[in-house]
Write a structure and sequence with these properties.
By secondary structure, the protein is an alpha+beta fold. The chain has one helix spanning 59-69; strands at residues 2-7, 15-18, 24-29, 32-43, 47-54.
Amino acid sequence: MAIVLYVGGSKDGDKGLVPHGFSKSRADTAAGPEIYTERFMELKGIGKIRVMALESMRDESVMLRAAQHYR
């Protein structure tokens, strides 16, 4: 298991557990399903992080959103 930061959607800013080897997860919400995919990225001043971000989000948006949770 690994602790990851969720970015985007209804889980934005939540930290949760994702079993080792999983690269996708799904959250069922009142607005419909949200598909999160695993991403590794380098954040300036923080280092390399692992996030679960909405599948539809571009990397630039994910980086900006994730950096806000580390401030």
